[in-house]
Amino acid sequence: MASSLRPAPTGLLAADDPPPVGLHNGEASSPFLIICDHAGNAVPAALAGLGLPQSELDRHIGIDIGILGVSKGLSDHLQAPLIFQRYSRLVAECNRRLDSPSFMTPISDGTQVPANQDPTAEDRRGRIREIVEPYHSEISSRIDRKLATGHPLILVSMHSFTPSLRAAPAPRPWHVGLCYHDNRQFSDLVLTELTHQRDLVIGRNEPYGVNMAEDYSVPVHGEERRLPYVEFEIRQDLIAEASGQAAWAARLAPILLAAYARFDVEARR
Prior knowledge:
The protein has 6 helices and 10 strands, in the order βββααβββαββαβαβα.
């Protein structure tokens, strides 16, 4: 069941704005914790759509198309908690460190973002305080509580990628990519399971890898805490419709369970 965590209005978010943090199966006790940084494309009313038409917010620059449906389906299959962010990555990029140039990007895949051209210090603080911090605080607190029980925890980070960039057109043939850095123990097990599916073109740190200097979610919640993790990137044309989202959720769930079974056996040796 989906639920929401709503902070008290303090400036940027009004009472009618959606809460930044969404939960699905929040009370589930699976060893998996699923996070989705770019699940939504909401914009606070005070930011007037960032000066963009809705068609731009609906593009991949504003949202990871299809990934929330996949993530909810995966959460249901695994009975795992899902934490997701409702606000657009153009409002505040929750998978970037605060000093990254793309945290409040002024341009994304050829589109200028008017509200991000010269934001005030207070505007920046409001986006961090009311959108970014509640999301990552929820992830951190859930990890802390789970680890305190002594039970295992695997972080699953869900993303999707566009088949084609306007600013840099080039073939992107991968159906799914895995992103990882040094802590590859669980990711390698997932990769092995994926390679058994002969119909997939699999990216290994393609179309993106983990940038420890600029990225946030996997570097901070996974790598820095030495937490086993896997980060998926699924091509958006495969999951734009509900049927594709359901199919990918059903495909990834047994892969994760098989990888976890092997991970658990190896941990006990």
